[in-house]
Amino acid sequence: MEPGPEPPSQQRARLVVAAGFVLLGLWILHDFLPALAWAVVLSIALWPLYQRLLRLFPSERGGHLAAPLILTTAVGVVFIAPLVLLGIAIAQEMHFVVGLIVAAKHSGLAVPDWLGELPYVGPSLADWWRSNLADPATAETLFGRINPRMVAESAREYGGEVARRLVILLFTLLTLFFLFRDGSSTAEKLQALSDRVIGVRGQQIGRHMVAAVHGTVTGLVLVGLAEGVILGVVYVAVRLPYPALIGAMTGVLAVIPFGAPLIYTLAALYMLAIGKTLGGVVIFVAGSVVIFVADHFIRPVLIGGAARLPFLWVLLGLLGGLETFGFIGLFLGPAIMAALIALWRDWTGSPETEPERAPQRRPLPRPASGAVRPRRT
Prior knowledge:
This protein is mainly α. The chain has helices spanning 8-28, 33-55, 63-107, 122-134, 136-143, 148-181, 183-197, 201-237, 243-253, 260-273, 277-307, 311-325, 329-347. The chain has two domains: 30-181, no CATH class; 184-348, no CATH class.
């Protein structure tokens, strides 16, 4: 005997219980939600590379474990190594900071030669340095409340924060491994769920979000690295000290909106301070042109073109996502905007969201009136 349909009250109660468990799960995992979001973004961005790697390892020889393990390890090396190096650098340089504070309180700090040569603000900064840091009495007043022991404790707190970030990163890598290994089955289940909840439009919305993530990775990461390479060549041309290191910093910060201008502006000010005016002007002009072209033409085309997003919504998604979710918002913002635009086009009946139709067969052309028709046998 087949069970009858559920009464509406039972359906509502089941939805309430399911929503309660979902909220409870989110509350339990709220500290790890950024790690989960990073794992999803990385898995989507690296999925084509994972598919290529999977072809090198036959499944009967453990390829379903070797491929995700290798790619996850590579991602871990790329992300964990800078954190470890940062922690080592903080530990090594902390004694220098403590010694600098002690020396300033006893004998003062001499004004650097390059400080007064900075344009516009150099003389004012040099005067402030002489009044507050060069004189031991004023330096004692300024640094009197700073205890070297407090500085060391602050360093331990920063070390604890780095360790916490490292734990979240390890959880991200663990989640990333399982997303690689079970990505295909998970995608099929999510597609079935979206078809049940949203309908046939769910699959199309998901494709737009995935395309937005791919476009954002290309538009932010790859374009940012290209900006670092181009400006690195400029740094070498004007003979800026440590051009490779400063170019790498420019490329990394170019991923964040308005991050690269900070680096090349400081580099230009340094060139002006040491008397190389032409080099400083070249760095600032070249950096401004490269960043303007990349941010206003290349990135919107790459991100918006992949997900069919207008320029305004790409910019709002990037900046709003960064403000709301932090650095991960650079990738989540355009994906959410892509879903909203897809829903808007669906609700307003835009032809871009109409389901794909099967190709219609064209009727065979009829022979002309004067053509000779074949005889029937």
